[in-house]
Design a protein that fits this description.
globular
């Protein structure tokens, strides 16, 4: 059973960088073939927003809405993948999820952007 767990600061100041890590257990992020390993967020009162993903070979895909501010990377030695979102504003306040395909999701982590 694949399990994912998000970690990172719950509060980020405006203009700073948001950094989150997803730790995966029960499966390797390098197993091929595999669904993409994604980052998804849900702002308060809004729907889910797919931000981007990394595949089992390390190729990265970004939503056009986030491409200019987002970087996704991985650490295969730790079986983790990470999200960096730069120049955050209060509109980036959301619950951030990591997921494998559509089937396996982390519990989500609340990130608030506020001074």
């Amino acid at each position: 059973q694949v399990q994912l767990q998000e970690s990172g600061p719950g509060l980020v100041k405006p203009s700073q960088m948001l950094s989150l890590t997803c730790t995966v257990s029960g499966g390797s992020i390098t197993t091929n073939p595999s669904p993409w390993w994604s980052w998804i967020r849900q702002p308060p009162g809004k729907g889910l927003e797919w931000m981007g993903a990394i595949d089992s070979e390390g190729k990265v895909y970004y939503s056009p809405s986030f491409k200019s501010r987002t970087s996704i990377s991985r650490d295969t030695s730790k079986n983790q993948f990470s999200l960096q979102l730069s120049s955050v504003t209060p509109e980036d306040t959301a619950v951030y999820y990591c997921a494998r395909g559509y089937s396996y999701w982390g519990q989500g982590t609340q990130v608030t952007v506020s001074s």
